[in-house]
Amino acid sequence: MITALGYLGIRTDRLSDWSDYASGQLGLQAVDRAAGQAAFRMDDRKQRLIVTAETGDDLACMGWEVADAPSLDRLCARLSDAGVEVRPGTRALADQRFVTGLALAQDPAGNRLEFFHGPMLTEDPFIPGRPISGFKTGPLGMGHAVLHTTDIDTLLPFYRDLLGFRLSDYGLQPIPLYFFHVNGRHHSFAMLGTGQTGFHHFMVEYTNLDDVGQGYDLAQQSAGAVAYTLGRHTNDWMTSFYTNTPSGFFVETGWGGRIIEPDKWQIQVMEHGPSFWGHDRPHLQDEQRREFRELALDTARQGLQAPPPTDCPWLWGALSGNRPV
């Protein structure tokens, strides 16, 4: 029923810092700086990230896309039948979000969810905030969103059984980790049993590995900007690093994420930790940081690696118009 993560809303008391970070570090295009709000593009959508000058939780909303108005009606009825309060979005809010229609609800942890259909597009070219090749979006959505939780057993049935998110894989060491897909992206949503609440991170994926590397060089120019070092994940094969945002949560910027076939996917159990290598976490306490490091080192000792990227000279030549004979 839900097809993609369409947009995110963030609350902050550091709006100017967010504008600099979103454009200068991530490469998003700033498209609106009205009083108390900034908005950013990633592609042909009119906006993907909305940052408002408000006090409160760092995550203002997650915008989940459905195919059309009947799909939205069916989702709302399903939630209402389960006792979840659902409110129709106003015309004014739909205009602010640049969508045709939407509805509002909360998950059991109080996170605001906006379900929408009919995103508005623009023919204006995407102009990134720093030189990048672009973002991997389209039917895969804007990326993924990840929540802290103190109680996975409460959130799990809500997202899996009511919203229809499909479990991609999960692990229990060194903390509970659950990953869900709603399209071919390996995961568009995840929850981490950290014993905390709030937003952990969101991810954006570039179309070129050099965009990641150049962003990593850029982040290393500012003390404390890098939250996780460069590494590669074991489940979605993403090569990425994480930066600290002005709000205190993280953003993962990556390349090479795994595309799955949802109808054929079998749930995986993560037995080897979240990363093949890298992703050191200097913000953690020493003991937990060592746990993550040891998992990655053990993965290396076992010789576990992701499959190499497909290397087909004929294909690349055909795509470039220089097919070899």
Radius of gyration: 20 Å
**What is the total tally of β strands?**
18
**Which strand-content bin applies to the residues?**
25-35%
Shape: globular
Strand order, largest beta sheet: 17-10-11-12-9-13-16-15-14-18
Give helix % range.
10-25%
Number of helices: 7
Order of helices and strands: EHEEEEHEHEEEHEEEEHEEEEEHH
Cα distance spanning the termini? 46 Å
Structural class: alpha+beta
Instruction: Summarize the biggest pleated sheet.
Output: 10 strands, mixed
Uncertain segments: 311-320
Kindly state the mean pLDDT as a whole number?
Answer: 93
Oligomer: single chain
Structure description:
With 325 residues, this protein is of the alpha+beta class. It is built from seven helices and 18 strands. Mean pLDDT is 93; it is low at 311-320.
Labels describing this entry:
alpha+beta, 10-stranded mixed beta sheet, globular, 325 residues
Gist of the model:
The protein is of the alpha+beta class and 325 residues long.
Layout of helices and strands:
Elements lengths: L1 E11 L2 H12 L2 E4 L4 E5 L7 E5 L5 E8 L2 H13 L5 E2 L2 H7 L1 E8 L5 E8 L24 E5 L3 H11 L3 E6 L5 E5 L7 E4 L6 E7 L3 H11 L6 E8 L5 E6 L5 E6 L12 E2 L5 E4 L7 H16 L11 H8 L5
Parallel strand pairs: 1-4, 5-8, 9-12, 10-17, 13-16
Antiparallel strand pairs: 1-5, 2-3, 3-4, 6-7, 7-8, 9-13, 10-11, 11-12, 14-15, 14-18, 15-16
